[in-house]
Every structure is written in structure tokens, then in C-alpha cells.
């Protein structure tokens, strides 16, 4: 099979789509059958990034036996997939040697940092943490390249560290777009023109001085969107294990249906507020560069999936109801007669100092509520806030979000929403754009609220 004519297509495979030798072969067949010229971006084998994060924690705690055992298990998993792919044929020895080399490098780095741990942020632990996390993609690309070659595809692994240039901010890799585009074009275009299929690690990049960085969990979508934008691909295909984006979570809403297409802004809102199908930064990035994203099921590739389009649909409509649990509500009330002036600025200064991103905010004359979606740093944040305000914390909350276009412009929408929720206790309401309205409810009440909103606003419709 030769590629090399037609438009560039970025194919990104998520972890479950490369989760075993059989899935790798399936992915390779999809690439072989790609209409146009494929560029492949791949996630770590399903579950491996979680295991690497656990391994890193074991190492940080000084549990040497623990991390060595886990690294060995990860090594064995990849060698097993390789053996299954190649039947110990000629491709096996070269790929096997590269797997050993990558694993060996991580082992050495962990040994070194263990002997000389240093301290503070940006120190050796943080550096090695990214390298450890990147191992999943470093290994999955070796396997997928092998699977592609077995399928007769002329594939070549390109190190994403040569392509995705990032800054280093608070322990995170933040891509430099223009530089990444330039590098992507320089590294990938000659291959694509020669009919070779580049295979890149998603999720990882490097700083100017060569430090490995990772882009945050789920970041492979982001890599795919950047590569698509750089190469002027009209569409990036995100191959995953579900059919696409649904009007709600089908596990809790029996009437949920697949959305054949969706506007970008709605997709971004949905991604932020709980639909785990796409990385929010990826959707945003693709939108800004006019690249469409198509979510497809690699387990059922005959289905069309969901197309996330740059252009907005006409007229008001509710697209979906999302929800997300594990949310913490913090309410702050300024102490009477105490520094009322500049109060909010000081509150947000505390959050920014702890690098805690805020989800929803609602504010009244006397009190401000906001939500966080993680517990790390919570005690420290609350401690600092207590110096300026009375603080109450409620855990076990969920956000329920109605996403659509033109929600504010449509008379009666909020009335319909409030009627549905009238006998629930809603702890906070936030509407920052006319794309979404969010409510905070107790976590165990969220599924029922979602079902009712879905029934009222989507199943009964009445928008056209
Ligand atoms: N492997 C990374 C993760 O699990 C990146 C990705 O899959 O997109 O978060
Ligand atoms: Mg993943």
C-alpha cells in the first residue's frame, strides 16, 4: 500500500485503540485504508500512563522494589504485544531492542534521581517525572510502527520531541504553536511527500534545551490537532472506543443519541464540563485553525462518528447535557467591614498562587462561590483564604451543564430548565456564555437531574 497523494489526514489513536496486538493490527489496517495521506499520532497503550504515574509515586516515596517491579511489568507487557504482533519474526529483534533501550534509559534515570534527589519544583524529580510519563508513548509508537510495517505500510517513527516545542510552566509543557508548526512541517512534509507514514508520540514534547515535557493527561489529542493545523489537514480523526459524542452519557440516559455533528464552541464547552471524548485544548486549538475533528470508533470503523465543525450551526438549539462529579464548592464571604475593597482580587490571587484552576464562579454582593475539580492543594488554598474571608467547603458535588448554541437568545429556555430542577437543591448557577449554563448539585442527584434535563430539552425538543 502506498500513500503520498491526496490531502493529509491526521489519524490519532487513543490507548484502547492500540490496547493489544489485535487492536494494533486493527489500527494499522485503518491507516492502510486511509483515503489521503496519513500522519499517525498515538497514545500510550491503554492503562500504561496511569501505571507510569503510580510508578513515579513509588519511586518518589523511595519504594525501590515497587517501582522496579512495575517497570518490569510494563516492559513485559510491551514485549508480549510485540511477540504477538511479529510471532518472533525478523521485525521483533529490532523493535525489541528499542523497547529495551527505552525502558533501560528510564531505569537508569530513576536510579540516578534516587541517589541524588535534589529538591524543589523544576528539580530532578520533576524532570524525571515527565520522562517517566512519556515512556508509554515512547513504547506504543515502536509497536504501532511495527504493526504498520507488517500491514505493508511504509511507516517511520519520528520523535515528537523534535516536533512539539514547549515551554516549561509549573511542571507542565505548554506548546509554542508557531515553532511547533514550523518543526512539524520541516520534519513531516518530506516524508509525507515521499509516501512514508510518520508515526509520532502524542502527549509529549521537549523544551528548547532538550528536556522532555508532557502536555497533561489526554494530551495526545492536542498533539494531533497541532500536527493537523501545521500540515493544513482539513480533518483530524480521533480514533477511540466510543461512537462519538452523545447528547448525554448513554450509561445514565437511555434516550441519549449520537450527535452526527457539533459546533466547535459546543464541543469545547462539553469537553470542559464532562464529556470525556476530547481534550478541551485540542478542540480549541483545532477551532482556531479551522481544522475539523472527527471522533470515530476504531472498534466499529464503519460508523461515521461525530464531526466537530468550525462553523456554527444556525439558530438556537440544545446540543447536550454533560455532567462531572468530584467537584468541590468553596464559598467565601468577606468579613464585615474588612477589606471589602479589592476582596475578589485577593481571593483570586490566592488561587493563582496555588496554580488552582477555577471552573465555575458566581458572585453576589456578600459572597462568592467557585468550584474546583481537584482536591490537591485544597487544604493549602482554604488555609490561605481563611486569612481574608469566612470560608465554607462542600465536597461531593457535581456540575450539570446544558450546552447548546444561542441559549440566552431563546425566550423561555431558562424557564424550562428551572422547572425541571425546581425540586432539587442547586448550590450554584453559572452562565458565562450563551453556549452553556451550569448548575452545581449533590453528586448523587446529578444522574437524575441530567435525565430530566435531557428529556425536557432534547427528547422533547421544540427548538426548531
Ligand atoms: N497517554 C496519555 C494519557 O493517558 C495521553 C493521552 O492518552 O492522550 O493521558
Ligand atoms: Mg489515554
Topology diagram in text:
Elements: E1 8-13, H1 21-32, E2 37-42, H2 48-60, H3 64-86, H4 90-115, H5 124-150, E3 155-158, E4 166-169, E5 172-175, H6 177-193, E6 197-201, E7 204-206, E8 212-214, H7 220-230, E9 235-240, E10 261-263, H8 264-272, H9 280-288, E11 292-297, E12 306-309, E13 317-334, H10 343-353, E14 361-363, E15 367-372, H11 378-386, E16 389-405, H12 413-421, E17 428-433, E18 436-442, H13 446-459
Parallel strand pairs: 1-2, 1-9, 2-6, 3-6, 9-11, 10-12
Antiparallel strand pairs: 4-5, 7-8, 11-12, 13-15, 13-16, 14-15, 16-18, 17-18
Helix pairs in contact: 1-3, 1-5, 2-3, 2-5, 3-4, 3-5, 4-5, 6-7, 7-9, 8-9, 12-13
Describe the protein:
The mean pLDDT is 90. Strand 4 and strand 5 (172-175) form a beta hairpin. The chain is an alpha/beta fold and 464 residues long. The protein starts with 7 loop residues before the first strand and ends in a 5-residue tail after the last helix. It has helices spanning 21-32, 48-60, 64-86, 90-115, 124-150, 177-193, 220-230, 264-272, 280-288, 343-353, 378-386, 413-421, 446-459, and strands at residues 8-13, 37-42, 155-158, 166-169, 172-175, 197-201, 204-206, 212-214, 235-240, 261-263, 292-297, 306-309, 317-334, 361-363, 367-372, 389-405, 428-433, 436-442. The protein has an 8-stranded mixed β-sheet with strand order 3-6-2-1-9-11-12-10, with helices on both faces. It is 41% helix and 24% strand.
Amino acid at each position: 500500500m502506498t500513500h503520498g497523494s491526496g490531502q493529509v489526514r491526521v489519524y490519532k489513536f487513543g490507548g484502547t485503540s492500540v490496547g493489544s496486538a489485535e487492536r494494533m493490527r486493527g489500527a494499522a489496517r485503518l491507516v492502510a485504508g486511509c483515503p489521503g495521506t496519513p500522519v499517525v499520532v498515538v497514545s500510550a497503550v491503554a492503562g500504561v500512563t496511569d501505571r507510569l504515574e503510580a510508578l513515579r509515586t513509588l519511586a518518589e516515596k523511595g519504594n525501590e522494589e515497587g517501582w522496579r517491579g512495575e517497570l518490569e511489568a510494563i516492559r513485559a507487557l510491551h514485549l508480549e504485544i510485540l511477540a504477538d504482533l511479529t510471532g518472533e519474526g525478523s521485525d521483533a529483534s529490532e523493535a525489541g531492542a528499542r523497547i529495551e533501550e527505552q525502558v533501560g534509559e528510564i531505569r537508569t534515570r530513576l536510579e540516578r534521581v534516587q541517589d541524588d534527589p535534589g529538591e524543589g519544583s523544576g528539580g530532578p524529580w520533576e524532570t524525571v517525572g515527565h520522562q517517566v510519563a512519556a515512556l508509554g508513548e515512547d513504547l506504543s509508537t515502536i509497536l504501532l510502527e511495527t504493526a504498520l510495517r507488517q500491514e505493508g505500510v511504509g511507516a517511520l517513527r519520528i520523535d515528537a520531541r523534535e516536533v512539539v516545542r514547549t515551554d516549561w510552566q509549573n511542571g507542565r509543557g505548554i506548546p509554542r504553536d508557531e515553532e511547533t508548526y514550523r518543526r512539524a512541517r520541516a520534519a513531516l512534509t518530506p516524508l509525507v511527500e515521499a509516501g512514508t507514514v510518520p508515526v509520532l508520540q502524542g502527549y509529549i514534547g521537549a523544551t528548547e534545551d532538550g528536556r522532555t515535557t508532557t502536555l497533561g493527561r489526554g494530551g495526545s489529542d492536542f498533539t494531533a490537532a497541532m500536527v493537523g493545523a501545521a500540515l493544513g489537514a482539513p480533518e483530524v480523526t480521533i480514533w477511540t472506543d466510543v461512537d462519538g459524542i452523545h447528547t448525554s452519557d448513554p450509561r445514565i440516559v437511555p434516550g441519549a443519541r449520537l450527535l452526527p455533528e457539533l459546533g466547535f464552541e459546543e464541543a469545547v464547552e462539553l469537553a470542559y464540563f464532562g464529556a470525556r471524548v476530547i481534550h478541551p485544548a485540542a478542540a480549541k486549538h483545532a477551532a482556531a485553525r479551522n481544522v475539523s475533528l472527527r471522533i470515530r470508533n476504531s472498534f466499529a470503523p464503519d460508523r461515521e462518528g461525530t464531526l466537530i465543525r468550525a462553523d456554527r450551526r444556525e439558530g438556537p438549539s440544545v446540543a447536550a447535557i454533560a455532567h462531572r462529579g468530584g467537584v468541590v464548592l468553596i464559598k467565601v464571604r468577606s468579613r464585615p467591614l474588612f477589606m471589602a475593597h479589592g476582596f475578589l482580587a485577593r481571593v483570586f490571587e490566592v488561587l493563582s498562587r496555588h496554580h488552582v484552576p477555577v471552573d465555575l464562579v458566581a458572585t453576589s454582593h456578600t459572597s462568592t462561590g467557585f468550584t474546583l475539580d481537584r482536591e490537591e492543594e485544597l487544604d493549602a488554598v482554604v488555609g490561605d483564604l481563611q486569612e481574608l474571608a469566612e470560608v465554607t467547603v462542600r465536597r461531593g458535588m457535581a456540575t450539570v451543564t446544558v450546552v447548546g448554541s444561542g441559549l440566552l437568545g431563546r425566550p423561555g429556555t431558562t424557564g424550562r430548565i428551572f422547572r425541571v430542577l425546581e425540586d432539587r437543591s442547586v448550590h450554584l448557577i453559572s452562565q458565562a456564555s450563551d453556549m452553556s449554563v451550569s448548575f452545581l448539585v449533590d453528586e448523587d442527584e446529578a444522574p437524575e437531574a441530567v435525565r430530566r434535563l435531557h428529556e425536557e430539552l432534547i427528547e422533547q425538543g421544540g427548538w426548531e
